[in-house]
Amino acid sequence: MFTPGKEKLSGISFGGFSFEPPASTTKPLSSNGLTTLTAAPTTSVQPAFGTTTLTRDDNSKVTNSSETREPKPQFTFLGGQLKLESPWRNMDWTEERRTSLMETITSYRPSCGEVPQARVLLLGPVSSGKSSFISSVQSVFNGRVTNRAMVGSFSSGFTKKLQSFNIRGKKGEDHTGLVLCDTMGMSEDGMTGLTLHDILLVVKGHVPEGHKFSPDQPVSASETVGYVKRPSLKDKVHCVAFVVDASKITTYPKGLSTTFKQLRKHISDLGVHQVALLSHVDQVCLQTAKDVTGVYESRTIQDVMGKAAALLGMSTSYIVPVKNYSSELDLDVNTDVLLLSAVDHILQYADLYFQDNAPQNKELKTVLEL
Fold first, then answer.
1. CA torsion sign, 318 to 323 to 326 to 328?
2. Distance, C-alpha 242 to centroid of its chain
3. What is the band of 365 on the pLDDT scale with cuts at 50, 70, 90?
4. Of 74, 59, 68, 80, which Cα lies nearest the Cα of 14?
5. pLDDT at residue 271, rounded to an integer
6. SS3 for 181?
7. Can you give the pLDDT at residue 325?
8. 183: how many CB neighbours lie within 10 A of its CB?
């Protein structure tokens, strides 16, 4: 019997699912390591290729049939990882798609004329992959892997100040209409890291470029050098992208979820839309690490997405998985497509901000409120 939710599979657990075999079992017959599970009374083990099927009937007799049958299982095991029969999101993994996404991002300009670039703030716990994402995106446009945003492995995080990175087009071209803002990691314990107070002042546009954050010295108009007293629309943050580490979703402190939800409420009150990036997906799924095109066929990653949604207090439709460049020296088309799709996802929500804050829309909103 195939039972979701239990922990053991003959002493081995697979992504929170277990399989209780019948009293007499047969060895997997596939030569490529693909074992099919079904919950039907008749258990079949089908090779990934060919039509020959071995079936165990009610009398535990194994018979051989060359008849081709429609597959019954909803997912399969691939090297210990659950693989869905069909992807839960569709993605075009081609060179043409990468080129199309690059052109879309390069040509992007905010729909609000007074704002030359969309400012997107990346927020997340220490080492969640914020700086790596910025470097990875810029690497795609540079044509080689680079680390423009300083990336470190310190437990306290490498980034300490507010840094804005213009995402430039292909080498030699001008910058795009997108700015990714990197900053100190969020506090997980309420004692260290970026505070709620400082985050909201960044979103409002009061914090100057290059400001070094300190939990002991909150940003203030009287104490912070370069404090922007009257920020214009172009100084403000137009979209917030939360970044959470897929490999740490179940180990983040419980209080972090409360912090996320409280923060999201305050940011929403400012009229700023939010999305999320699920980083390091290659660290939770072996098959995705080998081939990123399987990211939307992985039951493991789908489950982690659900946990990330619960942690952040947002629908999974706002969350996209990403694989950052880390040890690689060369670009990969499929990794590029996943990264650029995440940027395109962000820009769609950034543009909603400009639609909401266009002069004519603001005037209409004011009239309606009156």
1. negative
2. 9
3. low
4. 80
5. 96
6. strand
7. 94
8. 25
For residue 249, give both structure tokens.
């979703």
Q: What are the distances in angstroms from CA 367 to CA 154, 203, 269, 354, 357?
A: 51, 26, 19, 19, 14
Calpha distance 338→173 (Å, rounded): 23
Q: How many CB atoms lie within 10 A of CB 102?
A: 18
Question: What's phi and psi for 123, nearest 5 deg?
Answer: -125, 140
Each residue's pLDDT tens digit, 259-305: 999 999 999 999 999 999 999 999 999 999 999 999 999 999 999 99
DSSP secondary structure, 249-301, as one string: TTTS-HHHHHHHHHHHHHHHHTT-EEEEEEE-GGGT-HHHHH-GGGGGGBHHH
Residue owning tokens 């039951």:
299
Element (H, E) at 240: strand 239-245
Q: Tell the residue number behind the tokens 């659900």, with chain if given.
A: 306
| Residue, of 366 and 189, whose pLDDT is higher | 189
pLDDT at residue 100 in the model: 97
How far CA 168 is from CA of 10, 84, 151, in Å, comes to 53, 37, 19
In whole numbers, what is the pLDDT of the chain averaged over residues? 79
Spatial separation of the C-alpha atoms in residues 225 and 309, rounded to whole Å: 37
Strand partners, 194: 186
Residues in a beta bridge with 242? 123, 276
Query: Which residue, 300, 199, 294, 291, is CA-closest to 249?
Result: 300
Q: What residues have CB less than 8 Å from 362, skipping those under 6 apart?
A: none
Kindly report the pTM of this predicted structure: 0.74
- Helix, strand, coil percentages, rounded to 5, for the chain: 35, 20, 45
**Which residues partner with 244 through β-bridges?**
278
Alpha helix stretches (DSSP H) within the chain: 95-106, 130-142, 196-204, 254-269, 286-290, 299-312, 333-357, 359-369
Burial of 184 (0-12, 13-18, 19+ CB in 10 A): buried
Task: Tell me the mean pLDDT in the region 186-203.
Answer: 82
* 14 backbone dihedrals φ, ψ, rounded to 5°: -130, 100
